């Protein structure tokens, strides 16, 4: 007998699938406003970043419209086909860490370049708000990690390319799956590392703000290169 590997569902997938069902069943009518991120996080008993990832997935699927500062609304017209169970299942679950990091560099640099060209004032405000959260959470490892992830997702959203957003969400989850909580917490607990991340993120934001696509791509590539080298070092050095 041949068995198909089973991959445990992550929290954002569960939230995404539940909300997708609620939307498609008409529980949330077309054009209606969804509960806030805070309310959804409390209701599902998950972190806000989990809810944001689920909502970004729904947006990539064309099911919702996220209005920065104005909430999340069900699309006026829903896609005819539900497609895959979750928008973040773009890649297979068994890619190696090396493969994930290699692809991430090209996808994120492309997101940054397009964001510089296409970003709206609302997109820019959303990225800036995450930068402020990063500054406010320098001493909180988990919140710092959430803010870091949100920063990159906001840039992918600002690219206004749903396929890139799907890839970004998938790659983010794959990276989390490869790295244990202890590795991630060590990384974000190093204040010098977090301060460097903040400075590099600020530089990327400024290039996007100034609509300098070349500089935004270059700064993102350099940033991802540094982060990935550290991630690979942690992955190699920590006991499995």
From TrEMBL:
SMART domains: FCD (SM00895), HTH_GNTR (SM00345). The lineage of its organism: Bacteria, Bacillati, Bacillota, Bacilli, Bacillales. Keywords: DNA-binding, Transcription, Transcription regulation. It comes from the Bacteria. This is FadR/GntR family transcriptional regulator. Pfam families: FCD (PF07729), GntR (PF00392). PROSITE patterns: HTH_GNTR. PANTHER family: TRANSCRIPTIONAL REGULATOR, GNTR FAMILY, UXU OPERON TRANSCRIPTIONAL REGULATOR. Residues 9-77 form the HTH gntR-type domain. The keyword Glycosyltransferase does not apply. It comes from Paenibacillus filicis.
